[in-house]
Specification:
The structure is a single chain. Helix 1 runs antiparallel to helix 2 (27-56) and helix 2 (27-56) runs antiparallel to helix 3. The protein is rod-shaped and about 95 Å long. The protein starts with a helix and ends with a helix. By secondary structure, the protein is mainly α. It is 82% helix and 0% strand.
């Protein structure tokens, strides 16, 4: 088999995963797209390892070993990612990334503190009641 076939397939998988990361709003679909991108990289690693082992007469298979590490890291990433998504879904009621981003941007650390504004308003109300 030529090297071009797995390389083209890997490029198509990676582009599909990249589109999924950029276009999807659901956090679980974004995680699945990241997994698709990692699998495209794994396919490239194995294909180039086989191609280089035929050319160099060496059988170290470092690409395949690196692929196993990548699969282990991807499994840990998806486990932690799903745990975070489930925790956020329980707290916020949605896994929509745009809605989560909107709720995170509501609190402006440089702006006035809403609790301080409420305290000032209650102080002003108490002063107005005392003078009336």
């Amino acid at each position: 088999m030529h090297l071009a076939y797995p390389a083209v397939l890997s490029a198509l998988l990676f582009c599909t995963g990249l589109y999924g990361v950029l276009a999807r709003r659901n956090a679980i679909l974004v995680l699945m797209s990241v997994e698709l991108m990692l699998n495209a990289v794994n396919l490239n690693l194995v294909a180039f390892d086989v191609w280089l082992s035929r050319a160099a007469e060496e059988t170290l298979h470092s690409g395949q070993a690196l692929t196993l590490f990548t699969i282990a890291i991807a499994a840990a990433e998806i486990g932690i990612g799903l745990a975070i998504v489930l925790a956020v879904h329980r707290n916020r009621g949605t896994a929509d990334i745009d809605k989560l981003r909107d709720t995170a941007e509501r609190h402006d650390p440089d702006g006035p503190d809403p609790d301080a504004l409420m305290a000032e308003r209650s102080d002003e109300a108490q002063k107005a009641e005392a003078t009336a």
